[in-house]
Amino acid sequence: MIKKYIRKILGINKTDAAGNNMEPDTLGPKQHGIDPALLSNNAIRVTKTLQDAGFKAYVVGGAVRDLLLGVKPKDFDIATNATPEQVKRLFRRAFIIGKRFQIVHVMFGQDLLEVTTFRGPASGESPKDEHGRVLRDNTFGQHHEDAVRRDFTINAMYYDPATQTVLDFHGGMADIRKKILRIIGIPEARFREDPVRMLRAVRFAARLQFTIDPATAAPIAVMAPLINNVPSARVFDEMLKLLLSGQALACLKRLRSEGLHHGLLPLLDVVLEQPMGEKFITLALAATDERVKLGKPVSPGFLFASLLWHQVLEKWTAYQAAGENPIPALHLAADDVLDTQSDKLAIQRKIGSDMRDIWAMQPRFERRIGKSPYKLLEHPRLRASYDFLLLRCASGEIDAEIGAWWTSFMAADGNEREVLLTPKPRSAATPAGAAKRGASRGGRGRKKIGGGTESAQ
Ligand code: ATP
Ligand code: MG
Fold it and tell me: N or C: which terminus of the chain carries fewer CB neighbours within 10 A?
């Protein structure tokens, strides 16, 4: 104890053979200022149950970071020295999941807590791919070894609700105060082991409005292409987290400035370079961020449909120019875009089909005669597709009048709808007959890339 105190005064910490800091700074309530009211009862329940059974148990990772920032964590991860089997035995509804690295899901009603056994050092023998990405390493370890494996200093703190102390192995508290995102260890090595950490760096920096420490940021531009070797399902998960962070726009800007967007959504870089595409995506993400901040649900299908729309649009036009009819052309374009994406980003089947629905609905909004609009009202994807239509209007891709018409039509009662559907004699430029012909071909409102559209009425 005295030795530890002296070391602390001298700023020296005990290190293991690998040079890892073994003794954390221990911060009491006055130093860390965590409001215990922000903690979930279930997190307290899990740590207490484990501790009562003689194990160590802490809240860890993002939850501690958020608590320190005064934000209510959205979920709680627990770290312990109990093995998954030992954890499972202590809870009524606990499930061991994962093959590569087993963790335990402890459930209380709808609430799920992830309990992870302290992980050991990534040994030199851990299998890696040819680029140095660690494929498998599933060793349990000591507490300080668990800390060193975590990604950023601010994500490597442990909170014990019983004693209200924070254990800080890597200067996370100082970085929180300075609003710095710093990777633990040698940045190049950590990004090579797991290139997804580069995306995480961008996400956390944008979401928390932290600066990325220069040494952490420096290798990202060069190492960005390593993302291409990460399994696409994992990249997709990370992209989704990024897009649903409430700071999607900031994240995307940051990805671009770090040169990370190239590897992520192929074609997205092309889209962002077109003013129309950029405007559309900017509006879509701003709307998404707004929804997230208001606690409203966001559909991943809508998000990805937005991100890739201008790519679809381009191909749609190309297929039509090659003589394909508009509707089949749109489906071909959607196939192309989804296929190209799936190499890099495994868009889940359900999300892919939502995207398709939203895209396929778009030409149908332009048929504003007869029974068509009524049929559309019954479509299960109407709301998302209508929101999408409004984005197209707001971005200047199509005439704003179409969106306004649908807004009126959806809000109207039966008689008003009939009135809206009656062709206006004033609009001599587009007589009803012409509109009908156009509608039956499904060809009205075809887009001119980078320009307006043939307005329907
Ligand atoms: P969020 O608020 O987005 O959930 P988080 O920090 O909790 O942020 P998670 O993905 O839930 O992120 O991960 C929980 C913790 O696990 C992290 O805080 C970090 O300590 C560790 N971790 C997650 N992913 C990695 C990784 N790729 N490399 C190293 N450590 C990681
Ligand atoms: Mg988390």
Answer: N
Cβ atoms of residues 440 and 327 within 8 Å: no
Pocket test residue of 113, 115, 151, 167 for ligand 1, highest count of atoms within 8 A of CB: 151
> What are the start and end residues of each CATH 3.30.460.10 domain in the chain?
2-178
Q: How far apart are CA 172 and CA 63, in angstroms?
A: 13
Q: What is the mean pLDDT of residues 68-88?
A: 96
Average pLDDT over residues 243-264: 80
The dihedrals phi and psi of 135, each to the nearest 5 degrees, come to -90, -40
Rounded CA Rg of the chain: 27
Pocket test for ligand 1, best of 68, 117, 155 (most atoms within 8 A of CB): 155
Indicate which ligand has the atom closest to the C-alpha of 204.
1
Name which CATH class applies to 185-264: mainly alpha
- Per-residue pLDDT tens over the stretch 367-401: 888 888 999 999 988 999 999 999 999 999 999 99
Ion ligand 2 nearby residues (CB, 5 A): 62
The CATH fold of domain 272-424+434-439: cca-adding enzyme, domain 2 (1.10.3090)
Detail the DSSP E strand segments found in 238-380: none
Higher pLDDT, 286 or 19: 286
Rounded mean pLDDT, 201-229: 91
| Nearest ligand by distance to the CA of 199 | 1
Question: Distance between CA atoms of 50 and 59, rounded to whole angstroms?
Answer: 12
Residue nearest to atom 4 of ligand 1 (CA): 62
> Which amino acid is it at 119?
R
Question: Between 90 and 349, whose confidence is greater?
Answer: 90
2-178, which class in CATH?
alpha beta
pLDDT for position 430: 43
C-alpha 92 – ligand 2 centre gap (Å): 23
> Which residues sit opposite 401 in a β-bridge?
none
Interatomic CA distance for residues 339 and 318, integer angstroms = 17
Residues of the chain with CATH 1.10.3090.10: 272-424+434-439
| Atom 10, ligand 1: residue with shortest CA distance | 62
Q: Which ligand is nearest to the CA of 170?
A: 1
Q: How confident is the model at residue 343 (pLDDT cuts 50, 70, 90)?
A: low
Choosing from 77, 119, 203, 240 the residue with most ligand 1 atoms within 8 A of its CB, the one to mutate for a pocket test is: 77
pTM above 0.90, yes or no: no
Cα(222)–Cα(116) distance, integer angstroms: 33
pLDDT category, 363, cuts 50, 70, 90?
very high
**Residue extent(s) of CATH 1.10.110 domains in the chain:** 185-264
Ligand 1: atom nearest CA of 77 is 14
